[in-house]
Amino acid sequence: MFRMKTMLSATALALPMLVASVASAETRSFVISYLTDGNWSDGKGDCPNGLNMSAIDFYRRDLAKAGYKHDEIEAALKDFPGEGGLKQPWVPMVATRGNHKDNVYAHPETFPDPGMIEVSGKYSYGFNLDGKGAASPNSFEEPDTHEKGVNNQLYRVEGCVRSYRGLPPPGRPSLPENLWDVLRDVMPAWLITINAPGGFDKDGPVSITWDRALERITRDASGAVAQADMTYQIDPDPRSHNELKGEIKGNVVTGASPDWMMVLDPYMQPDIHFAKMHMRMTIAADGTARGTIGGYQPWSTIYYGFADQGHIKEYAASINLPALYYALKRNADYDPDPATGQNRQISSAYQIEAVRAFAVPSSNRTAQADSDSTKAR
Amino acid sequence: MIPINRTMNRRRMLRGMMGGAAVSVGLPFLDCFLNTNGTALADGQKLPVVFGTWFWGLGLNPGRWEPAQPGKLDKMNTELQPLAAYKDKMNVFSGMKAFLDGKPNGVHFSGVQGMLTGTVPRGMTADKPSVDTLIADVIGTRTRFRSLEACCAGNPSHSQSRRSGAVVNPGEISPAALYTRIFGPEFTDPNAADFKPDPAVLVRRSALTAVADDRQSFEKTLGAADKARLDEYFTSLRGLEQQLELQAQKPAPLAACTVPGKVDESPVGTEIEIVKANHKLFAGLMAHALACGQTQVVNIAFSDATSSLRRAGGTQTHHEFSHEEPVDAGLGYQPTLAWFFNEIMTSLAFYVASLDGIKEGDKTLLDRCVIMTATDLGYAKLHGLENMPMLTFGGGNGRIKTGLHVAAQGEPTSRVGLTLQQAMGVPVSSWGTDSMQTSKTITEIMA
Amino acid sequence: MAHVKKALAVVALTLTVCSTALLAADDSKPAGSDAVTRRLSQEQYRQVVSDLFGPSIKVGGRFEPDIRRDGLLAMGSAQVSVTASGLEEYDKIARNVAAQVVSEAHRDTLIPCTPANAKQPDDACATKFLSETGRMLYRRPLTQDELGSRVKVANDAAVGLKDFYSGLGIALATMMESPKFLFRQEIAEPDTDHSGQYRMEAYSKASQLSFFLWNAAPDPELLAAAEKGDLNSEKGLAKQVDRMIASPRLQGGVRAFFTDMLGFEEFETLAKDSMIFPKFNTKVAKDAQEQTLRTITNTLLVEKGDYRDIFTTRKTFLSPVLASVYQVPLVAPAGNWSPYEFPEGDPRAGIVSQVAFVALHSHPGRSSPTLRGKAVREVLLCQKVPTPPANVNFTLVQDTKNPQYKTARARLHAHATDATCAGCHKIMDPIGLGLEAFDSGGSLRSAENGEVLDTSGELDGMKFTDAAGLAKAVHEDAAAPACVVTRAASYGLGRLPSKDETEWVKSLQASFKDGGYRFPALLRRIATSPEFYRVSPPRMGAIEAPSKLASQANPEAKESQK
């Protein structure tokens, strides 16, 4: 019922009759309601070695390593974290804990690697990016599809940080959920449009596009998720336009692209730029969708996404930034620098949740021909 | 004099009351204002008596609330269990009914009208004043507000308080708005060290005379029915004049009066968690308003008579369950209904606790109150008007006895209204119409 | 069985559109009903402030609720008074408005004179302001006494507060609390054209006309016409009526009428469960009303169409959130309204299928064929449905999870086998079942609990298979236009037409039909009928009509105003 109406409303206001040969093809659009780090957890198997310590504890440790005396450290951390921004006495101490001079967030290698407790469990969301399957070193098994050879080193790095640890489904890791929740009210929405030439009821090939919208998301009455069936205009900016080939099997849509990018926001990171992007999305009967996107992305983008907020991110997320830096560097698994051999990209994955939307060409900016669907309004 | 600390800790205390179990609000006790026993004001006056009503819809499950024996209230039956802690300060009346005398049963209406006005109307339009307004006319004439009304389920028309005519005294639906109305810029703290009458208040008081003077020329052109309607307007005007007069005078100090912390805007609706949350805020505000002498008559409607309360995600309201849920063969009653009643009685207990939590000498605020509950039905499933539950809380400065169960099988509910009016000093020997008319005071509770 | 017959007989009687009792016209007995005294509604209060002091003056506070009587708030306004907390609020609102009017930001534009000394009273300036403003507030010139009393208030207050403007503000506030402002009076005078009869005097006529057509107090031009006696001549009255109907302000009046008739104030307390209907929020509720009002004014005023077409038109207006409820794509300019036309045959035709109707007449968690059928009967067809009896057995009616009865139709059918219930439900449910395609939030659906919906039904013999068919049935029902005529007359009168006025109402209904059901023409006919201004003779002795009093009063009242 709904699908037919989409067809009717979107293209046929001026043409009450449908052309027979087009009748079986279907297009559906979605707007991303949630985007969170794809960190799996069942509460025990993922971090058998425990979780990374919280900020006050690693500051104590790091400041001692940096040469501060016990009394100095305790005095500085007395009302941790305290109010009033830079007035906190511990801030300049931790910010230069490498060599008492340079900003450690911009120069993490001034501080020796304090180490990071990494994920050592069996399961992770994500995709077999290197094609090696089970033979891929450091790979995981997908918890739902049981595909082996999943590459997700980003999860390995951050999955045992308390605020980034996954929660049993349908839970989302808490800080990523929080960040996205703030972000989606201020940034343009992300849209996915799927065109199935044979319809969504039949297995077959599909073409998928990802775009940013001109509008921000609208929340529904519960406030938690996006309102379904809202109309978004597609931002013609090519930076966030991606075309993928994929297929639909049952109610699962998969797709891939060698190069994929979406502009995000510096509150998380400025953009996500995947090499060897993969996606998988399951469409439920009520029209909502859940799934995973993944690929290799430059780990420096991830690092600086944290580091540009320095001590604030460090203590709010309880994530030791130099440790993160070293861990990302160590676990990066793609795209070696020809000069040094250091891998510049890291495998990663994100969980997405989406609701139905209408994605229409933006009326006054594009030269796109088919604006009939907007004319009648 | 010890200044009362009106900072954060008061707000936290009030919030503490909201957050969950009733917390006894221990407040500093200023000896210099009280007599040697601490039970009355230093100039010999007793702290004023308070009357209130508390309304909920759909009665209770018959057989599950009536105490076993008449006489001393010993053990509480299941559905009144949330009120067990107050058995010595409350009375339970069972067996009373509303008489229709052949009039059609205006469902969710006739019963509560009978209980609160003594009259079961012929149609669905009420015309008699409710008992709280009759009592307010006697005890409410010297306070800033003649009475205060609050409606916890988001609709001002849920109020059951009416002076006359078709329209109720609307209840506040927003606790934040009620806070501003009572404790906002026009509040005069009875315990403030210095008092200077605001010249604006004097000017406004004097200006209102011109409005009162409009009466003569306005009424000249009115028919008799309209005259009666406009009488209410002019009564309201007198009330406003009186408010201003009081604001212009230095109020008597009240030891137990503290200004609560500012109340923030809260969501409003019929979902039971929201109603309970707003009720808690209203309960706290009313208790403080009473302790600060702002009024002596308080009316709270937990919901409308039809009880549109519902649970989040549920398609059915309390009302619909009352008709559609079958009586459980094993249990012998409607279980979901029992769940709602438990929520309602627990909220009532919170209100009583709020009043009992304010210490006044060796007594509490509750001790000088008489809070009368009201409901619309005795057996909701069939809109039955038999055996309608009635409770009172507080002894009203010793005017009525407490801790009793009065079983008054087949008697009209108006007996309670008559008795309480008499206890409050309303000169009435007989109240109600048709079979609801009664002159039989409930002597068991008269002091 | 007799029980059932009685119920059916009651039903049959209440279904008749209007009373058939006819009284022979008797010229010797004065016609007309007793005067009604109506309290200003919240909307009217706000309109007066906006018209008089401009839209930048904020009106804040809680207004006493209006009540609905005999289907209209306009009639309830003749029954309400002002409670103690209500007056407290009016006092607050009035002082707040007055404070803004005399504030530095506004005094230069709103007060036509300057005091000699701003820290002291100035009777001359106070008199000028209070008489001009008072004339607009009381909707007639002030008497000598009235003006004098308020000038004295301004003087005393200025002394007490040591400030002219504060004093003036207090005086202005007391005018806005006066019953002479808050209540509309109908003052009777002998009708010079029909001896023995009484009519409303000129200023009462002006108010009657102005609140009817524009839902506002008379504007300066109308007051001037009243003053000159123009409203007592057919030509003079017609001139004002035509001016007001041609004005863009007619739209506000028509919107106010339909807002009342369709019961939109219920939206304030409408709750939908946000877990079951996540799309429904206050914005949707607000936009839904706007959608229906725009649909109506577009059909009746812009397209000057047939009244009945509001039930079948596919043309409407949507906002982005409404588009999401209707599940259609919509790019509206700057996030606001866009015209939208549903395709031929779409069940979403006419106001009965719109969110403002189907969502308003539903429960928080599910739809209700009974509530919707009842609303069609009572709101659109003016047919009264008897109240349900007290001892109803609701055993299985709406257990939405009952696997045996998956749809509302199934549940109500099982219930409607009880003869005592069937009598009334027969006149409601078959209508409402046609709207089952719309869930409680107003969205279209084709199945409930997995079972495909059967949306067939009937309205007084006209059968249909879906909501578009129901819309057509309402369109064809003679009761619908007859109903809006009765409502419009009652709305303007503030009461139900009396037995003597039955002929008049019938003639309005006939000419409405003959003229193709044009709504502005109906309004014109009502506003130019002598019946609209007739009142019974006053009860309490001789009364000075304000127009007479005014001419004895200050000459300032006669000057042409702003």
Q: How much strand of chain C?
A: 5-15%
Count of DSSP H/I helices of chain C: 24
Total E-strand runs of chain C: 11
Widest beta sheet: strand line-up of chain C: 3-4-11
Secondary structure: helix percent of chain C? 40-55%
Write down the secondary-structure element order of chain B: HEEEHHEHHHHEHHEEEEEH
What assembly state would you assign to the polypeptide chains in this entry? heterotrimer
3D shape of chain B:
globular
**What is the spatial order of strands in the main beta sheet of chain B?**
2-10-3-9-8-1-5-4
Share of residues in strands of chain B = 5-15%
Number of helices of chain B: 10
Greatest contact pair? B-C, 71 and 69 residues
Instruction: Indicate the overall shape of chain C.
Output: globular
Query: Whole-Å distance between the termini of chain B?
Result: 37 Å
Radius of gyration of chain C: 26 Å
How far apart, in Å, are the first and last alpha carbons of chain C? 69 Å
The number of distinct β-strands of chain B equals 10
Low-pLDDT windows of residues of chain C = 9-26, 541-562
User: Can you give the mean pLDDT of chain C?
Assistant: 86
Report the radius of gyration of chain B as a whole number of Å: 22 Å
Summarize the structure.
The complex is a heterotrimer of chains A (377), B (447) and C (562). With 447 residues, chain B is an alpha/beta fold.
What attributes does this structure have?
heterotrimer; A: 377 residues; alpha+beta; two-stranded antiparallel ribbon; disordered N terminus; B: alpha/beta; eight-stranded mixed β-sheet; two-stranded antiparallel sheet; 10 helices; globular
Describe the model.
The complex is a heterotrimer of chains A (377), B (447) and C (562). Chain A has 377 residues and is of the alpha+beta class. Chain A is built from ten helices and twelve strands. Chain A has helices at residues 2-11, 55-65, 70-76, 90-95, 153-158, 174-183, 299-307, 310-317, 321-331, 372-375, and strands spanning 26-37, 140-141, 148-150, 188-196, 204-216, 230-234, 242-249, 252-265, 269-283, 289-298, 334-336, 343-361. Chain A has an eight-stranded antiparallel beta barrel, surrounded by four helices. Chain A is globular and about 75 Å long. Residues 1-23 and 365-377 of chain A have low confidence and may be disordered. Chain B contains ten helices and ten strands. Chain B has an eight-stranded mixed β-sheet with strand order 2-10-3-9-8-1-5-4, sandwiched between helices. In chain B, helix 4 runs parallel beside helix 7 (272-291), helix 5 (199-219) packs antiparallel against helix 6 and helix 7 (272-291) packs parallel to helix 9. Chain B starts with 7 loop residues before the first helix and ends in a 23-residue tail after the last helix. Among the domains of chain C are: 2-189, no CATH class; 268-294 and 305-476, no CATH class. Chain C has 24 helices and eleven strands. Chain C has helices at 2-15, 42-53, 73-76, 84-101, 104-110, 123-138, 144-161, 164-177, 179-182, 202-214, 220-228, 234-246, 250-261, 282-302, 320-326, 355-358, 369-380, 408-415, 419-432, 467-476, 479-493, 502-514, 519-527, 546-552, and strands at residues 38-39, 183-184, 188-190, 198-200, 315-318, 338-341, 447-448, 451-452, 457-459, 462-464, 534-535. In chain C, helix 1 runs parallel beside helix 19, helix 10 (202-214) crosses helix 13 and helix 21 packs across helix 22. The longest helix of chain C has 21 residues, at 282-302. The radius of gyration of chain C is 26 Å and the shape is globular. The termini of chain C are far apart. Chains B and C meet through helix 5, helix 6 and helix 8 of B and helix 4, helix 7, helix 8 and helix 9 of C.
